[in-house]
Design brief:
Elements lengths: L2 H15 L7 E13 L2 E16 L3 H9 L2 H4 L3 E5 L4 E8 L3 E2 L2 E2 L4 E2 L9 H4 L1 E12 L5 E12 L8 E5 L2 H15 L1
Antiparallel strand pairs: 1-2, 2-9, 3-4, 4-8, 5-6, 7-10, 8-9, 9-10
């Protein structure tokens, strides 16, 4: 084995052995296929960090409060399923804003051909998913994750995946925490 291979195997083993701090964030991965040209595609593995907050409140109270956060988030509620505990907020925008906040606070979509950040010039789609979990009769855990993509307004190419900064997920939990405290 070459030195480079040994280092890669060592780093992979270390990465698999480490875990995030409990209750802070967790990771989820998915694979996206994106077109890079005619008859060409690339598979991209995207890692989504999940942010979590535990509340000393019954599940139904947290659930109902979360459903009312869409205006504060400036993202419309797309779906809510009490069986799975999933709530999805989705925003598609041709402006680089999420409500009054600049989208670059929440997403990094790389740079376009001219060097400008894609988040400033591309059409954006953001999907914030929250999972509400029962931890007991009076305890509830909420996990949030953001998936975003950017598409050049002038083409019909596949959307490009964006990386979350974690700010929108934390903002959603902060909004929920403030509403539960009032």
């Amino acid at each position: 084995m070459t030195t480079r291979s040994l280092v890669a195997v060592g780093l992979l083993g270390w990465a698999c052995a480490t875990t995030p701090n409990p209750g802070e964030r967790d990771a989820s991965t998915d694979v996206l296929r994106t077109a890079t040209g005619p008859n060409e595609a690339v598979d991209l593995t995207r890692q989504t960090l999940l942010y979590a907050q535990e509340y000393a409140r019954p599940w139904m109270h947290v659930w109902n409060t979360l459903l009312k956060t869409d205006e504060d988030l400036a993202m419309p509620l797309e779906s809510a399923d009490t069986v799975s505990g999933l709530v999805v907020f989705r925003l598609q925008t041709s402006t680089p804003r999420v409500g009054t906040k600049h989208a670059s606070l929440f997403l990094d979509c790389g740079r376009g051909p001219g060097g400008a950040p894609r988040v400033d010039t591309y059409q954006l789609t953001l999907r914030l998913t929250a999972r509400v979990e029962r931890m007991g009769s009076d305890r509830t855990l909420v996990r949030t994750g953001l998936v975003g993509s950017a598409r050049d307004r002038g083409t019909t190419a596949d959307p490009l995946p964006c990386t979350s900064t974690g700010a929108l997920e934390r903002r959603a939990l902060d909004i929920l925490t403030a509403r539960l405290a009032s």
